[in-house]
Amino acid sequence: MLLTSKKAVFVLSFLLFLSPSLIRAINYSPENIIGFTTYFHVRMADLISQGSFYDPLSYGGRPYTYPPGFPAILSLFPGMFKVLLNPLLGAVFVVLFYDYSVRKLGKKTGEYALFFLITSPGFIYLSSHINPRLLALLLIFFVYYLLNFKDKDLLRSAAVMLSMIAVVLVHPLVFVVGSIIGFFIFSKDRSSLIPPVLAGLMVLFAMFFVNGGLPQSSIAYANFSELQRGMQYFIFETGTAASSVSVLTWIIGLYGFFVYHKKLRLESRWLVLAVVVPLIGGNRLNEFVYYPLALFAAVGFSKLGNLLKEFNMSSKTKVIRRVVLVYLLGVLLYYPLFFSNIGPQREDFQLLSWADDHLPKNAVVLSGFAEGHWVTGIAHRKNFWDAYVEYAPEVDERTILASQVFNGYSPALRTLVCKYNVSYAYLHIYSYMEKYKYPSKELFERNGRIVNMVRENENGEYAVLYELDRQHC
């Protein structure tokens, strides 16, 4: 392979992970960044840099409650340079994984493992847009790396301790899952994990104490596609989850697991747990599977000739390997192009940018659940709700009311307007759903007026903004 030095691995990985944002900047604009919660994280970084611990826009205004680690680091990057952070972290992750895999499998098979990791759509996804989970996963992987390869001494203990505390400050859920997996896979060295995990739990308790207790369960979580369970969410080709892996990587990885699990006992336990945890907690936890699966896929790929020999197909080994490589390269080329075209679309960004310039500063805008982050991040106006539901005020009532409004229920809209001071509503109308009625579209047209509409999509999709009547309040 061409990736023979860690510098080359770093540079090429960084360019790969940055490519969706570069494509996006060329096709759209540098300000139109990819994703939904990306706009939330950018706003949180701006709040941190201003020394503010009150969010004036989310849910109409709420105290700052988000873990401060990732926004604090993101705030070090000015303006649009914030999109560089995750590609940089992803490249560091790849280099560390490359070193790990070479130590475990040797140089050639380690390079195969590297290839399987960087062709995993889920890993590209994490490394290509602004999100805190990648940094938390990198820190957890660094802890596993230290426990695997470094002798137990004061320096290692300090590095593990600081890393685990940092994970809590970045993403508490990754800390909890990473700790559980760590206790199982490092069964002979649990004593090295107990003090850092206890320290992390103390920091976690302090954050909960400051925020008023544990986040409460909410019906709003039903809106999260990342909390669904099932084997289909592990496979990229099913189109059910962003945090997924190609079916060929799974097939080859499972073969590698079958033939090599006794020699990679730690990674075997890791892979099994990384599959079980998402089946219990939801597909957003799929991200723990990429690393052990890439290792076993590399083993399976290197031993593919042995498998084919059993079927008298040894002569086909090179051809089949080339087919696998070409297919995964196709995934590698396709996914950044696909990812660069997810929302916000041009019409969304133009409409909400117009709203930023024209709506009253105290306007409250109703939108879809995830699109609430666009309302605050692009239009810079208060939203009715958004996807950060932890510690959100009246989140269950808001969820019920929004659901009723989007199903065309007039009394719910009156409550939104009169109780929550919602003055505008924003919709994206999808062309493939035009044959079905949008109950909320008809409701807004009866109880308001269109103030702007942007139609930039050749497929007939458009974004529309309504001003809502207050005459019945």
Features:
20 helices, 473 residues, 2 domains, single chain, 7 strands, 5-stranded mixed β-sheet
Tally of separate domains: 2
The DSSP helix count reads 20
Number of strands: 7
The residue-averaged pLDDT reads 91
Radius of gyration: 24 Å
SS-based structural class?
alpha/beta
Described by the principal axes of the CA atoms, the overall outline is: globular
The share of residues in extended strands comes to: 5-15%
End-to-end distance: 69 Å
Q: State the major sheet.
A: 5 strands, mixed
Helix content: 55-70%
Q: Catalogue the unreliable spans.
A: none
- Helix-strand pattern: HHEEHHHHHHHHHHHHHHEHEHHEHEE
Q: Which strand order does the major sheet show?
A: 4-3-5-7-6
Question: Could you please describe the fold and organization of this structure?
Answer:
The chain is an alpha/beta fold and 473 residues long. The protein is built from 20 helices and seven strands. The protein has two domains: 96-339, no CATH class; 346-468, Rossmann fold, CATH 3.40.50. It has helices at residues 6-27, 37-49, 69-74, 85-105, 107-118, 121-128, 133-149, 154-170, 172-185, 194-211, 247-260, 265-281, 290-302, 304-310, 317-339, 346-358, 372-377, 395-406, 410-419, 439-446, and strands at residues 54-55, 62-63, 364-366, 382-383, 424-429, 448-454, 462-468. The protein has a five-stranded mixed sheet with strand order 4-3-5-7-6, sandwiched between helices. Strands 1-2 form a two-stranded antiparallel sheet. Strand 3 (364-366), helix 17 and strand 4 (382-383) form a beta-alpha-beta unit. Helix 1 runs antiparallel to helix 4 and helix 7 runs parallel beside helix 9. The longest helix is centred in the last third of the chain and has 23 residues, at 317-339. The termini are far apart. 44% of the residues are buried.
